[in-house]
Amino acid sequence: MNQTDLANIPSLTYANLSEALSKQRFPAGTLYVVATPIGNICDISLRALHLLTIADVVACEDTRNTAQLMSRYGLHKPLIAAHQHNEHEVALKIIKRLQAGERVALVSDAGTPAVSDPGAKIVDLVLQAGLAVTPLPGASAAMSALSASGLLHQEFYFIGFLPAKASQRETQLQSLLAVCATMIFYEAPHRILDTTQALLNVFGAQRQIVFARELSKLFEEIHRCRLGEAMAWLQADTHREKGEYVVLLEGAALGADADQVEAERVLTILLAECSVKQAATLAAQITGQKKNALYQLALSLQATSTD
Ligand code: SAM
Questions:
Q1: Sorting pLDDT into bands at 50, 70 and 90, what band is 4?
Q2: Which one of 130, 158, 183, 277 is most buried, counting C-beta atoms within 10 A?
């Protein structure tokens, strides 16, 4: 559906909105950070479409992708490539255009620019130059996944992509053990199995995990389970090693200290192999914590796992 088709929908509400939109202010000399769809082409705001219509130039991550996207809305604009290797240089060009009174749109390949995407440096430098930056809100994979995750009983913590190197990934995950907030990760399909195994190794089997795959696309899947069941779910269908993922992980219980989090992690691993008594004895040796307290914790972990 392109912009013309949208305008032809016989909806009074849309007609009113569309008329109102042309009367809204989109000041010149401003950098507009414009969210674009993360899958479904219709997930773009009316304001975003209007701004892309009146922008003098569009700075984008990949000119081929953006040209294709814009042409689907019936739009054709000069494009400048703004990717992670040229952000500084492009920011200087954008600043000159803004100082000359142009409206510049900044978009990425999908979702909200500058969120795990190029654009953050451009925004920073434009602000440092004393110029205006305005966001045009819209799709973001992280917020979409979070809203449908059922993991909003806690605060949330956006992490984005973990390091690709296993040792660095492990170090970062260890540093997140005591975080009492739902953690949001982005992951590439070819790393989803390795990353899930790493999450399991560090956080143990009990925490809830949500896989939000191919959001707003034909094969969208949102699956929630315990971390201990996650690898089996991923491996149950080879399609699950493809597609885009947001992974959400339940945080530590509020009030849990680092010792408790570590005790839970160690006990979870041991309980998969030994009795409650053996697990408590071994966990006491590993963590240096009291055996009786670990025994009680092991009993409650075992009860939760059989719920
Ligand atoms: N700036 C984008 C945003 O606001 O969502 C994110 C860009 S980041 C380079 C791309 C990552 O976002 C993908 O690797 C995946 O983790 C996630 N992602 C993007 N689109 C998605 C979708 N439709 N379903 C699930 N995850 C998606």
A1: very low
A2: 183
